[in-house]
Amino acid sequence: IARSILIPGAHLYKLLFREAYPSSLMAEAHPPSSSIEVLSPTQASSAAGAGARESRHVVPTEDFTVLSSLHGRKRRKQRDIGKRDLQVAVKYGTKTPASTINGKLRWKYTHNNISYITDETSRVEITAWSVNQHQENKKPDKETKKAKQSRKIPKMHVDTLHHNMQASAVSTRPATVTSHTVLVVDMSGSMRNRDVTAGSTRAQAVYENLAQYFVKAQLDSRRGYDKNSRMLDVVSLIEMRDTSTIIFEALPLDGHLFNMLMQRKTAKPFSHGNYLPSLDSAEQLLNKFSHGGCALLMLFLSDGSPSDRTVKGEERHSKINQRVSNLAQKFGRRLNIGTIAFAGPKNDFTVLRNMADAAKSFSIASYQYSKVDLGLALTSLVSSFTSTKGEMTSVDGLSTRTVRAVTRELPATSSSAWSKDDVWYYMNSSFAPHLDDSPCVTRWKWSDVDDDWQQLPMVSPRSNGLVIRKSIFGEGAERVVYAMREAFITLDWQGKYDVCQSLGQEMVAKESRFLEELCSNDIIDSTDVKNISKFKVSSESFHIHFCKTQQMAQTIAVAFNAQLTKRLEIDDVSVPHISFLECFVYLVYEDVDTGSHREVLAEKRLDTSLEYKKWNNNAGHVDGIPNKLPKNSHVGDVIREGEQGEIGGGVSSRGGGGEREIGLSKHVPPQVMCVCVCV
Fold this sequence. Notes:
This protein is an alpha+beta fold. It has helices spanning about 10-20, 25-30, 40-50, 70-80, 85-90, 135, 140-150, 160-170, 200-220, 255-265, 275-290, 315-330, 350-360, 375-390, 530, 540-570; strands at about 5-10, 35-40, 95, 105-110, 115-120, 125-130, 180-185, 235-240, 245-250, 295-300, 335-340, 365-370, 425, 440-445, 450-455, 465-470, 475, 480-490, 495-510, 585-590, 595-605, 610-615, 640, 665. The chain is built from 16 helices and 24 strands. Strands 13, 14, 15, 16, 17, 18, 19, 20 and 21 form a nine-stranded antiparallel sheet that branches. Strand 7, helix 9 (about 200-220) and strand 8 form a beta-alpha-beta unit. The chain is elongated.
């Protein structure tokens, strides 16, 4: 049926533009007409006022076809956009060509603050978002003005001379950098949402909080410190969209960095948030300051799930977790990883939580969710990172200690797997005719009575040496932990190690985590040899303090057990006793003539088949006793997962070599509960 369409002259261009890009949807919305009458605006108004003409055809909004997609529904749910909003956008909005994907044309409809992307037929929904242009252009009311004025933060003063000196040191002497933080900030389209603080987008709130609670808070804590201190902290920034963009690299932590982060509040969020390219860039930056004296921190801030299209589903999640785990395995405990999720609770933050979990086997990692208070989440992560820097700082606070370069076992590595290529062999020469008759492996114990070292026989009478794994399985604040066993070792006809029969119980071998505390003639990883010659601190003095402390603790434990049994007046068998593991030092000579040797602290490895509970940690936490907060602190809407403690080797995680920890099985009788403080 032929119909006439009344077109005001001012809207003729719009019709011609749509006719230039015909689509099946437009054909449905405006059926073919036998005649098109062009009227002036006045004529059109008169015609409309005369009443509805039978010849005019108006398509109801609900009749516009919109075929939903899974991705489109998810994005509309996140951005609070209804399906009718899309139909209205198609009916009344401006239609323009969108970006072409894989050679296929896509259309963009924009109307009333809604942008809507369809396929080439204009029928299938791809995605939609709110551009918030009306909030930017409209005149703010009094309340909005007041909120903005209260949030207005002045620029920080910059000591230009000091800043230039530090920037020069970063570029010319990178080994002087003592800490490096890599910030990864999600800048996808959803970061335009204004649901964090009044009048601010999520992106603006993130940068404001980073400036205030990450940079300024650390600068305030430094007041009174000597500017000539050797501490040099730097920060790099990555913004995450379809690809990753390194905004700046290794800027000193000072007022200039504060001002730079505040300037990023004007950056425009758009497109998707792809995790994998950003993690690649983060690894690239972390590797630039990989020397052992540099503490590392990666903060990953996002408001949703990854949008990476190269891999999908569980494979995508697995790849992200593996990337984070590899970083943690490489840098170990000196790398802190913090993932922060912010936005409404309806968003899916599973990937951010799993990223932190993937790093916990090797690094100090935590996941935090903050609905509104990003500052509290950042403060908690900065506090943890400060503890890491404290571990790596000398007693006088003027220099850093150098963490050794070691390899780390995967958590799933079996304790019974002893491959020839993965262990060090140390064999007593009396069992090898072509070697000197001097003993190469001896066992020592500190004697409180003699106030000296006392030599002991090997634990197993048949053993003629030691085997020590080359990769550590645990890392504490002061020591690294290897798996070790006494063994009977034989040589083949070429004099190479051939057969190794492990004997006796499995033990753990502990050494200092820092190069400065190793003896100058210790045998260590080949990666450390080039640095060891300048360090003269005796490894013996390092071990002797631990041995003395352990013996004193055991003496106190024996007295405590006796008093506990006596006062409770119950059978001695039913009372859970406290004991500390007995420790020894194995002295291994590789070259008797030169005195080249290695000293390792050894303890029995705990039975991993039992379930152990961690009662306390080095940070002062005791199970069942809530941490006391300062009077001025507040909890806020923050959920923190993960605590700082031992990595890998603690009794709470993998059951081996709990350093200065009491290992009590959960299967002990429940009649008595003892709260013990480890020395």
